[in-house]
Amino acid sequence: MPHLKTARLADWQKWLLCLSGGGLWLSGTVWVLLHYFGQIEGEFGPSVHPLEPLMIKLHGLVLIPALMGIGAMMVAHIPKGWTHRSQRLHGVSLLAVLGLLIASGYLLYYAGGERLREWTSVIHWMIGLALPVVFIWHWLHGVSLRRGKTRQAA
Ligand code: HEM
Ligand code: HEM
Predict the structure, then answer these.
(1) What is the pairing mode between strands 40-42 and 45-47?
(2) 94-112 confidence digits (pLDDT tens)
(3) How far is the CA of 127 from the centre of ligand 1 (A)?
(4) Which DSSP letter does residue 87 get?
(5) What radius of gyration do the chain's Cα atoms show?
(6) pLDDT category of residue 154 using cuts at 50, 70 and 90
(7) Where are the domains of the chain?
(8) pTM reported for the whole predicted model
């Protein structure tokens, strides 16, 4: 069960975030490697690696549980977490990074011009590559905050 009275997350929420987030990161990173370094020699010159479209399909698949997991943060985690002043910067930073990924992901679907799409793609995956750093920074700070409070109470 989620902890409705505190900002702590249930184990299944942590698994959901880690597995779907890890899937997003891996599929995105493999796409970048294949796109920039993995082109193959086709009949009519260099062409897209056959695994590239598969990575995007995988990305779209794990995006569904990832967005469900992020949405679940609105119920208790963020409102309860907001009362911990020292975690606000870490929380807002993580939300800002996720917000940029969601907005640029939307543009990747619907951006009109070729040039705009190219730029959106680079901005999207560069922020995406940095996501684990911000996520782990947020998590570790949250855990040390809780440990500090437990020590104070003892
Ligand atoms: C909440 C987080 C994320 C959201 C909402 C998101 C959303 C999307 C969407 C909607 C697309 C377009 C798919 C298509 O064209 O069919 C996309 C593509 C992509 N994403 Fe993400 N993504 C997220 C995280 C990440 C992460 C962590 C990475 C890590 C590198 C990443 C790398 C990529 C790449 C490389 C593409 C392909 C770009 C292109 O087609 O030019 N994404 N993402
Ligand atoms: C303004 C937004 C946010 C605030 C103020 C916030 C606040 C907090 C606080 C206070 C903790 C420590 C909780 C405790 O163990 O007592 C924490 C931990 C954590 N937060 Fe956030 N958070 C925010 C957004 C997010 C988002 C969007 C995610 C995920 C997408 C997230 C994922 C986590 C995780 C995985 C932990 C470690 C949980 C645990 O060990 O039980 N947070 N956050």
Answers:
(1) antiparallel
(2) 999 999 999 999 999 998 8
(3) 10
(4) G
(5) 19
(6) low
(7) 8-63, 84-154
(8) 0.93
How many helical (H) and strand (E) elements, i.e. helices and strands, does the chain have?
5, 2
Beta strands in the chain (DSSP E): 40-42, 45-47
Distance (angstroms) between ligand 1 centre and the Cα of 14 equals: 21
> Other C-beta atoms within 10 Å of 79: how many?
12
CA distances from 111 to 42, 115, 118, 154 (A): 28, 9, 9, 55
CA angle 75, 16, 108 (to 5 degrees): 85
Our CA angle for 111, 26, 88, nearest 5°, is: 75
Q: Which residues line ligand 2 at a C-beta cut-off of 6 Å?
A: 6-9, 14, 17, 70, 73, 77-78, 81-82, 84, 87-88, 91-92, 94-95, 138-139, 142-143, 145-146
Of all protein residues, the one whose alpha carbon is nearest to atom 36 of ligand 2 is 139
* Closest by CA position to 62, among listed 102, 21, 31: 21
